[in-house]
Amino acid sequence: MIRTLVTFALGMALALPASAREEVVLGLSQDEVSISADFDGSEILVYGAVKRETPIPVDPPLEVLVTVAGPFVPLTVYRKERKLGIWVNADAVEVDAAPSFYAVATSGPWEDVISHVEDLRHSVSIPRAIRSVGAQVEEAQTFSDAVIRIRETSGLYRLLQGEVNIREETLFSTRVRLPANLIEGAYVTRIFLTRDGSVIGQTEAVIDVRKVGLERWLFNLSKDQPLLYGLLSLSLAIFAGWGASAAFRAIRN
Amino acid sequence: MQLYLPIAEVSVNLILLLGVGTMVGILSGMFGVGGGFLITPLLFFMGIPPAVAVATGANQIVASSVSAVLAHLRRRTVDIRMGTVLLAGGLVGSALGVWLFNWLKALGQVELLVQLCYVVFLGVIGALMLVESVRALLNANKGRTPKRRNHGWVHGLPFKMRFRASGLYISALPPLLVGAAVGVLAAIMGVGGGFIMVPAMIYLLGMPTKVVVGTSLFQIIFVTAFTTLLHAVTTQTVDIFLALALIMGGVVGAQLGAILGARLRAEQLRILLALLVVGVCIKLALELVLTPEELYVISFEGAPT
Questions:
Q1: Where is the signal peptide (chain A) (predicted)?
Q2: Sign of dihedral through CA atoms B23, B27, B30, B33?
Q3: Is some CB atom of chain B closer than 8 A to the CB atom of A73?
């Protein structure tokens, strides 16, 4: 019995690329997030199914990881140091690219769903998502850790272990909440299927986060016609100041 | 109720913004300070990027100053002639200040320098005002008449001008220099400079306190308008939504402040302003000295393009 199983598993492993391939079919509740003036975050439902032409492999179990990453931006991280009694920004490390938002949802405990090697290969975990060449300072790692710590505190980086629901090893779904403090750009959503820590299938889709309406118009104006935008801001300020003064006078009389 | 700011790219509570605007507006109307030294740190605290906070704060100060100056004009407590002379010096000073700011920026640690500037100037001015106004108040309570202001060397300088609203006949040089000095500091510290201007006018130029407030506001309108335009064109960090929310609270506050200011005695007004200035100074000084909770700071230049 055991022998048959081993042979079966072996056969599966060898035949992986060809016959027993498990592919992901991905769906998003919305592939566009519109930032309007009253934008207060958004929840994205990521769902999908596993497509396969062979029977469901029995063991090891199927695991799913979902990542959502905001635009990558270079950063500078400063560490404060006390000099002459006051705290000043001393050492600095440049981080080449760190996502402005990063959420990872898994179907189980981290150690069970993906191996270290696969994490390195696909840059799935939060520390792997930050690309830093930063060798200027010896403990560059503590600077990267600080970025993660600060952004986890503010809810921009999140590890959601066990938040992906899998049904019958075929259907899966998870909800990722995008915070209110989003920046514009393409939010890449990746799905990884793993068995025994190895990635056996992956796919990705893009959620487009855009300002709309007045937000869009003002943002563009400030970039394309800065002088006009400045004058507009000033006139509004002067008009508001005059308006309030006139209104108060009218009330008093 | 949340408001998403298109330039700052953060979402903030609208009620909180209106509250901050109103509070700063009241101070502006009462004391003739633009409120930049309060609004900028408050916006930082709310999580708004520093560059946006500074630029938008300037825009808000324009509105509350216009509102307050109109109230002061009706009470004839603006010395336009003095304001114009101060402004002439101020524009030269702020151009110089911007140049100095960029030079310091190239050297690094500009943030620290700005903060130190705040602590030193707020501390010195606040302490001086507090001591002087408490003494004046005590004298007034004892029934003694306050001493006639000692003009001293200010009266010996050439290019004399008559400032009727202030009841002064003095050289144009001291106001020009005061304007220029305040302009430099205003550009470096990212504020209108009222909190420096007001005591300088009282103690250096010997202007009557009632006129000082309106005149300072008059000058602040132009300095902050200039700053706003400069920021809109160069750093593109003026957030119009943020400004409007602050303005809506601010213009109402400024009117309330002007009414309150007219009811309080000059000495009381000065004590209150002095206490406020000293308070902000202590807060900033503690931030520099106490061990911060988070030793690391993330800084990035704007959003990805």
A1: 1-20
A2: negative
A3: yes
Question: Which B residues, 232 through 291, put their C-beta within 8 Å of a C-beta on chain A?
Answer: 232-233, 236, 238, 240-241, 243-244, 247-248, 251-252, 254-255, 288-291
Cis bond upstream, residue A17 (ω within 30):
no
Cβ within 8 Å, pair B298-A180: no
Residue A60 near chain B (CB below 8 Å): no
Global pTM reads: 0.74
Query: pLDDT for B118-139, tens place per residue?
Result: 788 888 878 887 887 788 778 7
List chain A residues with CB under 8 Å of B255: 244-245, 248
In three-state secondary structure terms, B133 is helix
Residue B302 has pLDDT above 50, yes or no: no
Beta strands in chain A (DSSP E): 22-28, 32-35, 42-52, 62-69, 72-83, 86-99, 102-106, 157-160, 165-167, 171-178, 185-195, 198-211
* Higher pLDDT, residue A72 or B167: A72
> Hunting for tokens 């509105």 — which residue is that?
B63
State the ipTM, two decimals: 0.77
Query: Could you tell me the sign of the dihedral formed by the alpha carbons of A146, A105, A107, A20, in that order?
Result: negative
